[in-house]
Write a structure and sequence with these properties.
single chain, alpha+beta, Rossmann fold, four-stranded mixed beta sheet, 3 helices, 46% helix
């Protein structure tokens, strides 16, 4: 069986080439037009990188709140959970490989849900502020060195 599979693949390739060359000889081959592909938009994506059940609950509530906000299409976020020796579990929200927010998760499921709900607005405001600062330059002062 193992020896038969490569032979079948080679035979199929030879037959396909033979059929294509036979169609070209008959003049039946249509020239393909320009390739148009619709690319999906992936704005407003929140990626899950959590490890525990509380982290997953935080991610689910945060992503639900994020999807309900307006003007989130231009941001892609990652919710990353890291175990911390002093505080239990730390959640980081990343955008463009930079940490937007760090928060330690409480041990209660209800408190995690409330925390996720309140952090949605905070992260959105922080990201909008970063976007405005990037559009304005490195600050309002044109003379950075005092000259």
């Amino acid at each position: 069986m193992v020896r038969l599979v490569p032979w079948l693949v080679c035979t199929g390739a030879v037959l396909a080439v033979g059929l294509c060359s036979a169609q070209e000889a008959d003049g039946e081959v249509e020239k393909p037009g320009p390739l148009t592909v619709e690319l999906p938009e992936y704005g407003g994506v929140v990626v899950d990188q959590t490890l525990s059940g509380l982290g997953r609950a935080f991610y689910v509530r945060f992503s639900e709140g994020w999807s309900q906000l307006a003007e989130t299409e231009s941001f892609a976020l990652a919710v990353k959970e890291r175990p911390s020796p002093r505080g239990g579990t730390e959640v980081q929200i990343l955008s463009n490989d930079s940490v937007v927010l760090r928060q330690f998760l409480p041990r209660s499921h209800a408190a995690v849900i409330n925390l996720a709900t309140t952090l949605v607005e905070r992260v959105h405001g922080t990201l909008k502020m970063q976007m405005l600062q990037a559009a304005a330059g490195e600050g309002g002062d044109l003379a950075r060195h005092g000259y």
